[in-house]
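Tutorial handout. Part one gives the primary structure; part two gives the three-dimensional structure as tokens.
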Amino acid sequence: MRPTASLGVLADRRFAWFFVARSVSMAGSAMAPVALAFAVLHIDRSALALGQVLGVRTIAMIACLLLGGVVSDRFSRIAVLQVAHLLTCATQATAAALIISGHATLAQITVIEGLNGAVSAFTMPAMTGIVPLVVDRPRLQQANALLSFSRSSLGIVGPAVAGLLVVGVGPGWALAADALTYLVAVLALARVRLRREEPGRQRSSMIRELRDGWREFTSRQWLWVIVLTFGVTNAIHVGVIGVMGPLVATTTPAIGEAGWGAVLSAEAAGTVLMTLVLMRLRLTRPLRAGMVATAVVAVPLAMLGLAPAVLPLALAFFVGGAAIELFGVGWSTALHEHVPVAVLSRVSSYDALGSFVAIPVGTFLYGGLAAALDHEMLLLVSALVYAAVSLLALASPAVRGLRHRVDEPESVGAGAI
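Part two.
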């Protein structure tokens, strides 16, 4: 493949406009956590207040995920995404106006962010379902890698921009900037034209469509095995990175808060580098490669217990970030290639539900374990369990045997693993 071929997918106007829309909205998503956190603390300087807002937002998102999948398969996914973006713009703009005017209360922001979380449950399934409708099959992996590159890059830049806005003009204006990105994304989505496989026919009851989605989900062993696996590994990862990491950093002079930030930046850099690699390197067995890579993530988890110092941790987390990204691109491509477009949003909503439920589980679990157990031992055991569960998924022939599917000729010269 020629050096420019991996970007050739942008020559397709359908994908190009979708890429613009998704990148702009992801810029807002990357800024939102920082802007929201300081906005809440501007009202009530307590961790409890922040936890309340974030908790309500997460619960609302989880509660609406399956409905989001049904709606995204039933109606035009572009229309669903545009409506969701407009509602996100409205909620964030309302929160921004209240904060800027000085009239915001914790109850108001909690309700607004609960609505925002519910809306995001429609955004994710719709986005997943759009990709195969704007990209020809041979370029699905390159498209997913390019989308992932945008997300990873914005994940580094977005929080920094939000921080500058918070310091320079205040958290309310940072939320206003977040709202504006979604309005721009709506305009870009108006230029996207989906091909004829766009679902929306033969509607039935919501319950039946949920059952159909569940049947499609459970009928593919590779799919439910991976989701079950990540139900465990995500809980461990969130617990270690979200709870244990900051705890170890603040109690270890060799790391500190600034050092922990550098470690997480190294992880993000690893994801960016891997997306560049995957724009050119084809995964012939995406789940086999992905689960081996996932097992590698156990290394930074163990290093947090064995070598709590910035340089070794940064190197380990760089490798871990690259490994996570390899799985992520392989997984997205497997979904797009092997799940029918008509049910893709519903299937992805079951996938997302399994992933997001693990987040509060891991947070609460490790909060208790960290208070009761030796930290080094807890981290080492977590790493071993993480690696074992990841590799156990490869015991499924469906997981290790799933192949890259090509129904159309692919460019000659692409690397493959």
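Part three, for discussion. The chain has 15 helices and two strands. Residues 183 and 325 are 29 Å apart (CA to CA).
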